[in-house]
Structures are given as C-alpha cells and as structure tokens.
UniProtKB/TrEMBL annotation:
<dbReference type="GO" id="GO:0043190">
    <property type="term" value="C:ATP-binding cassette (ABC) transporter complex"/>
</dbReference>
<keyword id="KW-0813">Transport</keyword>
<keyword id="KW-0472">Membrane</keyword>
<dbReference type="InterPro" id="IPR027417">
    <property type="entry name" value="P-loop_NTPase"/>
</dbReference>
<dbReference type="GO" id="GO:0042626">
    <property type="term" value="F:ATPase-coupled transmembrane transporter activity"/>
</dbReference>
<dbReference type="GO" id="GO:0005524">
    <property type="term" value="F:ATP binding"/>
</dbReference>
<dbReference type="InterPro" id="IPR003593">
    <property type="entry name" value="AAA+_ATPase"/>
</dbReference>
<dbReference type="GO" id="GO:0016887">
    <property type="term" value="F:ATP hydrolysis activity"/>
</dbReference>
<comment type="similarity">
    <text>Belongs to the ABC transporter superfamily.</text>
</comment>
<dbReference type="Pfam" id="PF00005">
    <property type="entry name" value="ABC_tran"/>
</dbReference>
<keyword id="KW-1003">Cell membrane</keyword>
<dbReference type="InterPro" id="IPR050095">
    <property type="entry name" value="ECF_ABC_transporter_ATP-bd"/>
</dbReference>
<keyword id="KW-1278">Translocase</keyword>
<dbReference type="InterPro" id="IPR015856">
    <property type="entry name" value="ABC_transpr_CbiO/EcfA_su"/>
</dbReference>
<keyword id="KW-0067">ATP-binding</keyword>
<keyword id="KW-0547">Nucleotide-binding</keyword>
<feature type="domain" description="ABC transporter">
    <location>
        <begin position="2"/>
        <end position="235"/>
    </location>
</feature>
Amino acid sequence: MLRVENLCFSYRAGEPVLQNVSLEIHRGEIVALIGQNGAGKSTLARHFNGLLKPERGRVLVDGRDTAGEPVAALARTVGYVFQNPDRQIFHDTVAREVAFGVQNMGYSREEVDRRVQRALAAVGLEGCAGAYPFALSRGQRQRLALASVLAMEPPVIILDEPTTGQDYRESMEIMELVDNLNRRGHTILFITHDMSLVARFARRVVVLCRGRVLMDGPVRQVFSQPDVLGQTFLRPPQITRLAQSLEAYGIPGDVLTVEELYRHLLELRGSREKRAASM
C-alpha cells in the first residue's frame, strides 16, 4: 500500500530531515513508527498523504506516485489523524465536522448521513452529534478526529501520537479501536513514543534515527536489540527489560506483555517441579 524509494527531504537547504529512506508497508499491516524527537517520523508520515512532496526519491500510495497527486485525491486512500486534534477540527458541531470530508467527496446527503452515523458509532460518540467539538474532552476530540477520517473510509490510516495527553483508560480505548480497524482490513501506521503500546498493538516496527531507517522488523526482533535501539534514546518496555534481566534463569528476552511473562514463569516453575519430582 505504501512504498518509499530513496526518499530525501529538507525543510531548509543543507539540513536534511530524511536521508535515503526506503521501506514498504503492505496491505493489512499494523506498523509502529518510532524514534527520538526530530528523527523525521512525522515528516515521513506526511509524505503519504501528500502534505509534503519528496525532494528526491519517490513515494507511492497504492502504486500511485504522490508527486503528481493532490492531497484531496490521496485522502481517499490515506487518512491522517494529527497528534493534536485541535489542528484539524474547525466546524461548530461534531456531526458537521465528521461530514466535511465526505461532502467534499461528492456523496449524496443520505450517504453522508449514513457515513457520519457509522463513524461516530465506531468511536463511541454517537450521542455527541450536536455537541460543540471544543466542549469535548481531549480524548473525545481525538476520537472525533479519527471519526472524520473513518467517514471517508480510506484503506490506510495514519495516526501521529494518537494517545498524547490521554490517561491510560483513554489510551487503551483509542488503541483498541485502532486494533479493531486493522482486524477489519485497514492498513495502520501509528507514531508513538510509548513502547508498551508498540509491544501490545504493533506487529512490526520501523525505527528512524537522524532521518534514516535504523531498524525495521517484527516487534520482538527489534526489542531484542536494546543496544541498537538505545541509539535513538528509546528503550524496550519495562516488562521486556525485566524479562531480559531474567534470561539467565530461562526466561526469553523477547517477552512483550505481563501475561506472556507470567506464562513463562509458570512454565519454568512447572518444569522445575517436574525435574524435582523425578529425582
């Protein structure tokens, strides 16, 4: 769905933000894009919906070169949810906000209403259609921004720091919604600094460092290389680091969740009890 070939980009001459970035994101994947502040994560993501155009190299969206595609056309394929929802909310009611993009796509009023209702139901805001958007909580505004994207039904959804400013419960609600969208066939790319979210929801992780791809692979593989990941001043989640500290006792170092560690501990205890009984 998304292909990057030797992408280079600078905001100002002589200061490259992306340097020869190449990667592919396939249909149906859920991929985390991580790296320290200034690594180029948002800059890369904004090339996928045409907000930025390559200085050198190519970006292809479902086989189409973004250099020749307007943002409005790419929006049918790639939906982008900004880190700060207040930067993309501008209408005076929740329903009108969600309807805006669909109306611009030329659908009938009946189809617009249907999509608005379905999108609001998907994010749990069906009772807020007439509300003023900025009267909503931060978490609700994040879901509103996502609903506005969902209403256009793009096959690819990009979320830039979707849980910023939200508590644990709100973060889990957003990410479980994103996970459900992926299970229903959407290709998902999300940017985050929260490694526990990467461990729980991503199937693959791309690590950017100083505008280059440092690592790209399954989450377990990436988190099993803490020294390399440390070049980006990021660390695996706490539960993975705990497991890595217990490798000498037979615990795998690629554990991603508490439940997984608990299962390994039970298996380890069971095997030891079995050995003791046989002696």
